[in-house]
Amino acid sequence: MKEIHGICIYCGDPRKATANLWKYIKAELIPEAERYTPIGQLGGAIPLARPADFPIKFAAIMEDIKFALEEFAESKFILVGHDCGIYKRLAPKNFTLEEKKRDIALAAAFLREYYPNVPVSAWFKNVGVAEFEKIS
Ligand SMILES: [Zn+2]
Q1: CATH code of the domain in which 86 resides
Q2: What is the pLDDT of residues 73-128, one digit of tens each?
Q3: Residue 16 Cα to ligand 1 middle (Å)
Q4: 103 C-alpha vs ligand 1 centroid, how far in Å?
Q5: What tens digit of pLDDT does each residue of 12-34 get?
Q6: How much distance in Å is there from the Cα of 12 to the middle of ligand 1?
Q7: Which of 9, 12, 71, 133 is the most exposed place for a label (fewest CB within 10 A)?
Q8: Which residues does residue 133 pair with via DSSP β-bridges, in sequence order?
Q9: Ligand 1 centroid from CA 129, angstroms
Q10: Residue 52 belongs to what domain range?
Q11: Please, which residues bridge with residue 6 across strands?
């Protein structure tokens, strides 16, 4: 049986009240039999949508992706966004929840274009809601 494995890009914020995404991702989005490489920088996939705002994070994510695809033969991407505090770095602009969700969609679109042979699914974790919202 072929083992299914992939890469999960999410925000590593561990705070229980607002994030703690990896726990929910493993419970809700990753089947028991599948294995994912976690790429859990603070800010998650946002730099893929905003490389000019977060150039170092963008480069680090792309380096991790390249390594995981080459060395671990990962075959799927899961992106998970949330109401992320990293946007405070872009003050004074305020970002709405819809803009934050759009960034996750943009990050997914970027990966689909960059790696056309690797399927991408994108999700959003709303505070206080157990189920993930499908973004794309
Ligand atoms: Zn975050």
Answers
A1: 3.40.1050
A2: 889 999 999 999 999 999 999 999 999 999 999 999 999 999 999 999 999 999 88
A3: 12
A4: 13
A5: 999 887 778 999 999 999 988 89
A6: 7
A7: 71
A8: 124
A9: 16
A10: 5-134
A11: 36
